[in-house]
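Exercise 3.2. Students should predict the tertiary structure of the chain below and write it as structure tokens, then compare their answer with the key that follows.

Predict this chain's 3D structure.
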Amino acid sequence: MDWTVYLSGEIHSDWREQIQTGIAALGLPVTLLAPVTDHEASDECGVRIFGAEESSFWKDTKGAGLNAVRTRTLIARADVVVVRFGEKFRQWNAAFDAGYASALGKSLITLHPDSLDHALKEVDRAALAVAREPSQVVEALRYAIQ
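Answer key:
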């Protein structure tokens, strides 16, 4: 069986690449999916396609809606959803993705440092596993698959 894993969350570190490298090294039958990780492209997609907005609220609303087309489709397609929370930025969209995945009954793994444990207690409670490092996500997938 091939597995599909959606990698949601922070876009300012190489955690996705670490997971991809680990999966490839183990030869796991996994297809990785992700949101648009180019910050500018993600922020600007709505106005680039649907036209400029004077208000940042409406600019962000257009972009969020268009990004949600991709996000919701790929989360629904996934067998497992991994949501990474970093310390540099508040990832409200990642928390939303975790809740959406949970509502769909997806297997959810969160990935974050222990400094965020209290802030993410409800999200972690919905997750089936909480990882601290990308390598732990790879090992969890290896265990589940093999």
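Discussion points: Residues 87 and 116 are 8 Å apart (CA to CA). The longest helix spans residues 56-77.
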